Amino acid sequence: MSPSLDDLPLRDDLRGLTPYGAPQAPLPVALNVNENTHPVPEEVADDILDSIARALREVNRYPDREFTQLRESFADYLGHGLTPDRIWAANGSNEVLQHLLQAFAGPGRTALGFGPTYSMYPLLTRATGAQYAAGTRNPDFSLDAESAAEQVAAARPDVVFLCAPNNPTGTPLGLDVIAAVYDATDGIVIVDEAYQEFAPHDSPSAVTLLGERERLVVSRTMSKAFAFAGARVGYLAADPALIDALRLVRLPYHLSALTQAAATAALSHSATMLRMVDEIVAQRDRMSATLDALGYRAYESWTNFVLFAGVDDPRATWQALYDRGILIRDVGIPHALRVTAGTEEETTAFLEAMASIDSGV
Questions:
Q1: Which of 94, 135, 130, 137 is nearest to 111 (CA)?
Q2: Which residue of 111, 115, 199, 224 is most buried, as measured by CB atoms within 10 A?
Q3: What's the rounded Cα separation, in Å, for the pair 193 and 199?
Q4: CB-based contact 140:170 (threshold 8 Å)
Q5: Tens-place pLDDT, residues 229-243
Q6: What is the pLDDT of residues 39-60, one digit of tens each?
Q7: How many CB atoms lie within 10 A of CB 11?
Q8: In the sheet where 159-163 sits, what is the strand order?
Q9: Which residues partner with 338 through β-bridges?
């Protein structure tokens, strides 16, 4: 008889935990994990392939441990006078967050996030041996400066997560909240801007707050706006001293030469990729308007997805969509479901399916 997990000498603090995992199914329309469902444009893909081919010629050697060219590209992309010594990158934004927790959390320490928020925050926290504390949001999922600062001051966490805009609700977060939270703690404040490119163009990034705030971190990903989910590239901007701390916990040569080549090439086409973002935002807003017209409540979203409430039986609605070849996400919020904004064709398929469910067809 094969042993079970309970038979292994697992760390006590990991017993009973459930690993992260969104449902995977080979359905025609997959709108459940907030991917950019648009393919990488052909001219961008060609440039990426050329860059990877060049990198392959030296793949017998270890990659640049400091991923120098890639950091320069990220600094140029983010702007605001950032220099490469203020940039870090890893295999997806989850590894970026893991590095931060390895350096600043761990046994005997606490990280705090404001729920409902990204489900990986508590998983990553507990995996590093730290405790996770759940703060609360307003009924509309917003977070105001006074309440957030009071909760942080009372909990005294070593690390604070601020998802801006928030996943899974899409809720924007004001810079005043970030500044207030920073002033309320002596710990590290991580602003997770995985979806920032989908916010209004005049919406300021938390990068503008970095300045002399040596404990502030702004995390980003290439998975969403750059349609790079399969490449696994995340990055952050912070004070150079904080970047030095991350070198203490990263694995040697953690970013492969092929990853560095692909990401650097993609960043050189940022204007092209961001035009695709505008198309996604248009479909997101179309989703919201149509869901409202169907009698649901679509929450304000600055991301590439829509959380909508007013669902009598989320499980039944999820299954009805599944049976029609459409996969969305039940994120555990009562009477609500989340759907990714896809291509025009995918959006149409989802909205027509929702209309057919409501009409009983």
A1: 130
A2: 111
A3: 10
A4: no
A5: 999 999 999 999 999
A6: 999 999 999 999 999 999 999 9
A7: 10
A8: 87-90, 234-237, 216-221, 188-192, 159-163, 110-115, 131-136
A9: 307, 329
**Under a CB-based contact definition with an 8 Å cutoff, are residues 54 and 63 in contact?**
no
pTM above the 0.85 mark?
A: yes
How far is 116 from 127, CA to CA, in rounded Å? 20
Closest by alpha carbon to 255, among 69, 57, 48? 69
Half-sphere exposure of 37 (CA within 13 A, CB side): 24
Helices 93-104, 120-127: inter-axial angle, 10-degree rounding: 40
Residues 6+ apart with CB under 8 A from 27: 322, 325, 326, 327
Give the pairing of strands 234-237 and 87-90: antiparallel
Predicted confidence (pLDDT) per residue in 319-334, tens digit: 999 999 999 999 999 9
Q: Are 72 and 84 in contact (CB under 8 A)?
A: yes
Q: Which tokens is 198 given?
A: 């989908």
